[in-house]
Amino acid sequence: MAKWIDACAADNIEEEDVIRFDHEGRTFAIYRSPDDAFFCTDGLCTHEKVHLSDGLVMEYRIECPKHNGVFDYRTGEALRAPVCVNLKTYNTKVEDGRVYIEV
Fold first, then answer.
1. pTM for this prediction
2. Largest CB tally within 10 Å, which of 12, 13, 24, 81?
3. In this protein, which residues make up the domain named Rieske (predicted)?
4. C-alpha to C-alpha distance for 57 and 101, rounded to whole angstroms
5. What is the pLDDT of residues 16-44, one digit of tens each?
């Protein structure tokens, strides 16, 4: 059964940025979009398991720091080779200034 996990303070993430969040042996990437919405994906690139939190966020895309593959972090869609497997995405919500993810 899915549950909501308190991941971070909303203020911990700058606009158009990403942070890493680890929980129960899993790594997530939490993003803040240019329109102040929050999104969450698996935290490791599907190509070579590199931490996406070290990547470059541009609008609604995250670029992997190792081979420059690109994903749309809103949908998890792989947009540029060498990535070809989509990222898993997770629901997010903000309550009382905290970002929660549904896992």
1. 0.95
2. 13
3. 5-101
4. 19
5. 999 999 999 999 999 999 999 999 999 99
